[in-house]
Amino acid sequence: MIDSYDLTLWLHVAVMGYWLGSDFVINALTHYFKNAKDLPVPQRMKLWDFLLLVDQHPRNALILSLPLGFQLAGDLDLSPIKGPALVALWIAAISWFAFIWVLHFQVGNPAYRPLSKMDLTLRYTLIVGLFLIGVGSVLGDGPMIAKWLGAKVALFALVIAGGLGIRHYIAQVYSVIPALKANGSTPEVEAVITHALNWGSYVLYVMWVMIFVIGYLGAAKPF
Asked: What is the pTM of this model?
């Protein structure tokens, strides 16, 4: 019978596959949207909306990876987050998971902008906190017992930062959506879309490398 550690490990690997699979779909949709200059605007906007819907899945995976990773670390006695603290982390992650879906379905609603800023603040806080914990653990001063685990935590913080970078480029596309709807495809609009989605893809490629390294560190535990 599978024990709780093996089940958590399996879920952790499955979530990583879910994350990367969703990212591959998003990357393909991004290039299709960028090059669909002759597509009627209503159809192109449906493609954009679908792209943003699929983009929720890597966000799901990111949030789920956090408690799953700390659950594994706690089971191996490599992390101080155990017992009630781990339960609290799971509750916080599930709440955050529900929160991002509420925000997704309220995109464009001014009443929800303060909540969107809260989400951004949480991500910035996690980036700083996890990076400091990870680097400190690699140097031998942090709370994580194993240095490879500290490296994973630091890289995970950079992955979250990469997600914010992609969000920045998505915002650039949003800035020309009104012009696209009003005037259709123009060289000015397409220049912004092409620049933003190209650079968003570059950030995504770097994130893939970091995710693969995170997976390697967890499997090989090299140091």
From this structure: 0.91
